């Protein structure tokens, strides 16, 4: 049973993995329902383009698109991309509302996104923070699930324990006057 579960997990988790340097590898783990709700609460009052960095099966993208965001899910795992696209078609969600691209977000310029969601791993948060600080506009908001950015002060947070999510406003991160 354990071996079968591990086998199934590797089929879904491993495609695309080799393309990313070892120190930046992040495996697939879906957001829980409560974690997804916490992220949506932190997006309240926001609008525009949203990027989910490592979109997995698309659940954060689908939840955000139902709030009116134009979402792009970046995902290196081609199986998960295929699954998310099929689910979008099945749910009747149009491409501008939920778009899934088979791209490595480390190699993508994210400057056009005003909202960014991430559920990744503790080891990549500091380096990701440096990339986002270079690229995002002052009015952008970043939401991190489970693992906060170690070098940033959060503007807001929702939930507790494994489901906790933190919101970071780039103007605050950059310590700009209000
Ligand atoms: C912890 S899962 C989160 C999935 C989804 N966002 C959710 O909350 O359910 C992280 C995802 O990031 C993807 N990923 C890891 N590194 C990536 C990269 N450099 N570019 C695009 N996707 C990446 C993994 O394949 C995995 O699906």
From TrEMBL:
| Taxonomy, superkingdom | Eukaryota
Q: Which UniProt keywords apply?
A: Methyltransferase, S-adenosyl-L-methionine, Transferase
Write out the GO MF terms: protein-lysine N-methyltransferase activity
The protein's matches in InterPro entries, at most eight in alphabetical order, are given as: FAM173A/B, SAM-dependent_MTases_sf
This entry carries the following GO cellular component terms, namely: mitochondrion
The residue stretches assigned to a coiled coil in this entry are none
Query: Looking at the keywords, is Metal-binding present?
Result: no
* Biological process (GO), any one: methylation
- Give the family this protein belongs to, as stated in its UniProt record: Belongs to the ANT/ATPSC lysine N-methyltransferase family.
Record-given protein name: Uncharacterized protein
Q: Look up and give the organism this protein is from.
A: Hemibagrus wyckioides
